[in-house]
Write a structure and sequence with these properties.
It contains 14 helices and 37 strands. It is α+β, with helices and mostly antiparallel strands.
């Protein structure tokens, strides 16, 4: 009987049968594993004019040829030969929660190792290593990291699209009979094609994501029996991966999980590597960009830092404009020396002032880019990724440095290390503001894959040298949010758009795979710098408060009234952040008639944030029915706190006033069944409800 291999995380189980020859057959992928059974050994038969010996189609990483007619997950050749791979002689190596399947193709002289891990969070991860065992080069055209199985019947895929300033827009579509493909060739995770999907059917729901920040592809291929193979992996440029004899290609890691909470748990418990080994409460952050842009004046920045500390803010981040002759975005990227015109005594007086106020100091870098107008480019124009004879294509007046060259990586490390070593820096905002185009090295060959890994290597090197420094991943906002980046960083800048109305959908989408404490969300000025919209401070603050809260404005420009109000929201965040960011506490609901609802819940406290985006269509808002993950705590509750003190309601009844004042107690189960009858909010306004349980005593309502 064939060997059955089971990868069981407790939430998901992948059951595989290892054949004598061919790829592992996926017997099941879902909540329950299978047990060995003679049914799995029965040979199948094809139609009369089909293959005389039928080949299973629901296999892990199908190779194509040899009777498989679907989309091959592995493809390559050796000078036009060895274009078919057929592995056999499978061995199984187990080490704790990790299983490695190994096999060899003795004809094509290839070796494969598939690493499968069952994580305590409930995720299953998979990665592929392909080795050239021959004595000639092997060109690898495709090698997916993972394959999982989706059921037959009606299956819906939820994907994410967007643009700069409007990332993580969810899209749902019903899969048809053909092959569904999403590819990104931007050289970074991208704003429009995130490597994240949720697969939904009547029988099953699960999500998949690829932990990689470069070119990638996701493919859903329908098999003959109506089921679907879901493949995730890196997308290669032509001729990009050529394995010399003895060399191996290692794929990124792909992940599958049953729900958002499992993905969140994995990011919290395994993926993110915190200084000191544990996440500290996420500090309220002021970022200087929208309050100053390139206008850096020491006296003003010190005054802003003082005002920032008085607001209760805990981290001060100096954004773009402190280096070279950086008076605008056309110059000086690559010249990572402190601008003596703006900082005649260096950065130390500002850093010392900030830290003396009890705040952390952070600083902005964009290491991967260079401006043609810079001292670095003048000295080393050959350091940019270009193709000889082709036009030099700028984006945002930037070119991309070839980090695969050791001298380039060493130069960047030296410059960053000098700033970090000579100043009390606790935080780096690591930016990356353009896509990669015609990214070739000195040999004219594609370098996108190698460039992505070189960026990782530079991040790893900096973290090793400065283990107490946290890093934020920013790429024109949310252009590099993935599990490959998150393995090396501690926060992501969710979007360059700080407009609270736009952020409702951006943050809802990003929250599917990323926990709230990782998602940077800032209170910015009104009118908003990206859209021109005007919003109340309450709306701006409440849309941001459940995430990693920050402020993106010049605090010296606030009125006394605004300053006092902002203090209230900062104090509220500090009081509630342990709940907002607690494992398993956060929840979010599907928008209904323009109403967005999210928050966090425990047995001791429930916080519900309600935000109205566009005007409601309904004459009355539907009662807010709390989800099961909230009502599970049971008991009787009441509303303890409402922020702002006077929400922007269109109309409110006496009963609703009593409910919001805390005069009415209610069974939490009723809040799930009948719902909370909240008043209708005006468009682009919000409120926060803080609920407390009633412990003993007489209740009414």
């Amino acid at each position: 009987m064939s060997e059955i291999v089971i990868i069981d995380s407790g939430q998901l189980a992948l059951s595989l049968r290892l054949p004598a020859l061919g790829m592992p057959e996926i017997l099941s992928f879902g909540a329950e594993p299978v047990e060995a059974d003679p049914l799995f050994e029965i040979e199948r038969s094809s139609r009369v004019n089909g293959m005389d010996i039928a080949v299973p189609s629901n296999v892990l990483l199908p190779t194509g040829g040899m009777g498989f007619f679907g989309w091959p997950a592995i493809a390559g050749h050796r000078g036009g030969r060895d274009f078919v791979a057929q592995f056999g002689g499978w061995t199984v190596l187990r080490d704790g929660n990790q299983t490695v399947l190994k096999a060899i193709d003795s004809v094509a002289k290839l070796g494969i190792a598939i690493t499968l891990t069952a994580h305590a969070s409930g995720l299953i991860s998979m990665a592929t290593e392909l080795s050239n065992l021959g004595d000639a080069d092997y060109q690898l055209d495709r090698c997916m990291a993972a394959t999982v199985l989706a059921p037959a019947g009606d299956v819906q895929v939820m994907s994410f699209t967007g643009i700069w300033g409007r990332e993580f827009q969810t899209r749902r579509e019903l899969l048809g009979n053909g092959t569904w493909i999403q590819e990104s060739r931007r050289g970074r995770t991208s704003h429009d094609r995130f490597p994240m999907l949720f697969i939904e059917s009547e029988a099953q729901i699960f999500g998949v994501t690829l932990g990689f920040s470069g070119n990638h592809q996701m493919v859903i291929d329908r098999t003959d029996d109506g089921q679907r193979l879901v493949h995730l992996g890196e997308l290669f440029e032509p001729g990009e991966i050529v394995l010399k004899p003895g060399e191996s290609y290692r794929s990124p890691v792909a992940y599958a999980g049953a729900d958002s909470q499992d993905f969140h748990a994995f990011v919290r418990d395994e993926l993110t590597q915190w200084p000191g080994g544990k996440m500290t409460p996420r500090p309220v952050t002021l970022n200087t960009w929208e309050g100053n842009y390139f206008d850096h004046r020491m006296d003003s920045l010190k005054a802003q830092a003082t005002a920032t500390a008085e607001l209760g803010i805990e981290r001060f981040v100096l954004d773009d404009g402190w280096f070279g002759k950086r008076d605008n975005d056309t110059t000086s990227l690559g010249d990572w020396d402190i601008d003596a015109r703006k900082y005649p005594d260096g950065l130390k007086p500002l850093v010392d002032h900030v830290t003396g106020l009890g705040m952390q100091f952070g600083i902005w870098f964009e290491p991967e880019m260079v401006n043609p107008v810079s001292e670095l480019y003048k000295a080393h124009p050959d350091w940019a990724l270009t193709i000889e004879g082709r036009p030099v294509l700028e984006s945002r007046t930037q070119l991309v440095l070839d980090l695969t060259r050791p001298e380039v990586s060493d130069y960047l490390f030296g410059k960053i290390d000098a700033v970090l070593s000579n100043h009390a820096v606790s935080y780096i905002k690591w930016d990356m503001n353009r896509d990669l185009t015609h990214a070739a090295g000195r040999d004219g060959k594609a370098k996108t894959a190698a460039q992505t890994r070189a960026v990782y290597a530079l991040m790893d090197r900096i973290r090793a040298a400065h283990s107490n420094v946290e890093i934020e991943s920013c790429a024109s906002g949310g252009g590099r949010i993935d599990y490959g980046a998150l393995k090396r960083t501690h926060r992501v800048w969710t979007s360059d758009c700080t407009d609270a109305l736009e952020r409702l959908e951006i943050q809802r989408g990003a929250s599917v795979f990323v926990p709230p404490e990782i998602l940077g969300s800032h209170i910015s000025a009104s009118p908003n710098h990206q859209t021109g919209r005007r919003h109340t401070l309450a709306f701006r603050a409440l849309v941001a408060i459940a995430y990693h809260l920050g402020v993106e404005l010049n605090p010296l420009e606030l009125t006394d009234e605004e300053r006092d109000e902002l203090k209230v929201y900062i104090e509220t965040y500090k009081r509630l952040r342990d709940l907002f960011h607690a494992p398993g506490a956060s929840f979010r609901m599907e928008p209904l008639d323009g109403r967005y609802v999210w928050g966090a819940a425990s047995a001791e406290k429930i916080v519900v944030i309600v935000a109205q985006g566009p005007q409601m269509v309904g004459e009355q808002p539907a009662p807010l029915r709390l989800p099961d993950e909230v009502t599970q705590f049971g008991g009787r509750w009441r509303i303890k706190t409402v922020l702002p003190a006077e929400p922007q309601f269109i109309r409110i009844s006496d009963g609703q006033k009593a409910l919001l004042s805390g005069a009415v107690t209610f069974a939490l189960s009723s809040a799930g069944l009948a719902g909370l009858p909240l008043p209708m909010l005006t468009p682009e306004s919000a409120l926060l409800l803080e609920l407390e349980p009633i412990k003993g005593g007489k209740t009414h309502g």
